[in-house]
Amino acid sequence: MVTLADLGLAGQSAFQTEITGITLDSREVMPGFLFGAMPGSNVHGAEFAQKAVENGAAAILTDRAGEALAREAAEGTNTVVVLTEGPRQALSRAAALFFGPQPETAVAVTGTNGKTSVSTFCRQIWGELDLAAVNLGTTGVEGVWSHPLRHTTPDPITLQRVLAEAAKNGVTHVAMEASSHGLDQKRLDGVVLSAAGFTNFTQDHLDYHKTFEAYFDAKMGLFTRVLPPEAVAVINLDDPKGVDVMEICEMRGLEILGVGRGPMARLQLLSQRFDATGQDLRFSWQGKTHLTRLSLIGGFQAENVMLAAGLVIGAGADPDDVFDVLPHLTTVRGRMQLAATRDNGAAVYVDYAHTPDAVETALQAIRPHVIGRIIAIVGAGGDRDTTKRPLMGQAAAENADVVIITDDNPRSEDPATIRDAVLQGALSVRSNDIHNIGDRAEAILRAVDMLEPGDALLVAGKGHETGQIIGTDILDFDDVEVASQCVLALDGKI
Ligand SMILES: CC(=O)N[C@H]1[C@@H](OP(=O)(O)OP(=O)(O)OC[C@H]2O[C@@H](n3ccc(=O)[nH]c3=O)[C@H](O)[C@@H]2O)O[C@H](CO)[C@@H](O)[C@@H]1O[C@H](C)C(=O)N[C@@H](C)C(=O)N[C@H](CCC(=O)O)C(=O)O
Ligand SMILES: Nc1ncnc2c1ncn2[C@@H]1O[C@H](COP(=O)(O)OP(=O)(O)OP(=O)(O)O)[C@@H](O)[C@H]1O
Ligand SMILES: N[C@H](CCC[C@H](N)C(=O)O)C(=O)O
Ligand SMILES: [Mg+2]
């Protein structure tokens, strides 16, 4: 039997109350459940306290803003109201205690771009070291055990349930993505971390956070709040915000493992040499130089690999063992993935660049591998940060020779309006070789048809995604598959 006291909610009245489940959604409450009535972005969860009580909630956890509604609903029933200043944090910790032990070693990574890549590389490194590992984030739970997820950082109840299930299935190591929404909503606060990483900080999600400061502060919650004091902070010092992150971590007395090209980095990238299938790296660890080879396209992937290596070392692995396995790392699905090659040699890459910085980084990353033109397909998602749209168009026009603007998950918005915002950004750079083709399949077909020997195509924005979200419908759509089919069709093979 689990009681409110067992969930860290002792000291409250009726702390011996038995709890049979936890949920954030009144509609999911079953008899004996703890209902987390949280302040939301649309409505306060306490608005649904009445429904939770009707469904048999044993307790309602809420804050001062939700107190009156919760007490009103509970009046005359056995439902206990538990009041706390930080209800989201309390709920995350309660969920951790309720669902039971997580895998013994957990690391998390935050930053605007690179979280999925870094966490996947951590899982691959651990796997090469014969450890039972998974990554958890945008692409679900992947590795020795897998599980689909709807969010990059799931709500705390799903997260703790999944972590406990992973542990029961033998998973000992987990690398997870900490999204800014997840950190802001304290979804990770019940997780015990050995190390946490910071990739970079550029524009995204201003629709939610409103200002750069609020977005940055949300991310810093990983280091100022979630990470325990004895854990290691692994920081990309090449990012303009890297030193700020380091100072924030120093103030908490965290051990810092700096990664980057500059001399302050303990894991220092000394040089990269690119060729058609990957790159040779020279790097140093605490003064000693190492050489390695990565079968990965794109200079930024070396930064992601260094950060992943730092996290795995920070979480206790032997550095030499880690460095030995780096040549075995493989492409992360939908991140600079070579989807197909035309008979004339022109390559088609699929990448998940969906921020201005990522569009620029991805296009610059393929430049050393291309002797001809770069054609870029770019679009922006609906119901997301609107201010990034022209900046994405601008980044595409500045870094590609031909730009095709197309749809990427318009969701509830008018697709032509989204495309127009991206188009304005591209047109601010130049007017030639900029095309606007709403239908994504047609855009890909047209782009593949343009490819001459020596050219390359980057299809940006959807990466691993397998659907195009139009309104509330999700239509099957997979950039890798569509691009491969277009190549086969235009080369006369189907
Ligand atoms: C903006 C945002 O992040 N919203 C998330 C948040 O909702 P909220 O608390 O703001 O919801 P609300 O609508 O105001 O409702 C308040 C509360 O009332 C409850 N409620 C509501 C209705 C009802 O009948 N009964 C009831 O109890 C809700 O469960 C909620 O707890 O908490 C909910 C439960 O955990 C999430 O499902 C929801 O994710 C929405 C669907 C979402 O789309 N989130 C995206 C933007 C997101 O989180 N993305 C990040 C970042 C991805 C990236 O890095 O690019 C991610 O980690 O995936
Ligand atoms: N270190 C990096 N620096 C800049 N851009 C990067 C870096 N790593 C990846 N990218 C770009 O960002 C895209 C998304 O990468 P990834 O999925 O790893 O990021 P993410 O942070 O998990 O994104 P999301 O916020 O959607 O979860 C890549 O396809 C690539 O274009
Ligand atoms: N995690 C990101 C993914 C964006 C991917 C892009 N294809 C889109 O739909 O905007 C977001 O939800 O903002
Ligand atoms: Mg991700």
Structure description:
The chain is an alpha/beta fold. It folds into three domains: 5-96, MurE/MurF, N-terminal domain (Udp-n-acetylmuramoylalanyl-d-glutamate--2,6- Diaminopimelate Ligase, Chain: A, domain 1), CATH 3.40.1390; 100-328, Mur-like, catalytic domain (UDP-N-acetylmuramoyl-L-alanine:D-glutamate ligase, 3-Layer(aba) Sandwich), CATH 3.40.1190; 337-490, Protein-Tyrosine Phosphatase, Chain A (Alpha-Beta Complex), CATH 3.90.190.20. It contains 16 helices and 22 strands. The strands form four sheets. A ten-stranded mixed beta sheet has the order 7-6-8-5-9-10-11-12-13-14, with helices on both faces. The protein has a six-stranded mixed beta sheet with strand order 15-16-20-17-18-19, sandwiched between helices. A hairpin with a 2-residue loop joins β12 and β13 (278-285). α3 packs parallel to α5 and α15 (440-450) packs across α16 (479-490). The protein is globular. It starts with 20 loop residues before the first strand and ends with a helix. The relative contact order is 0.08. The model has no long low-confidence stretch (mean pLDDT 95). The site of adenosine-5'-triphosphate (ATP) has 22 residues, from α4, α10 and α12.
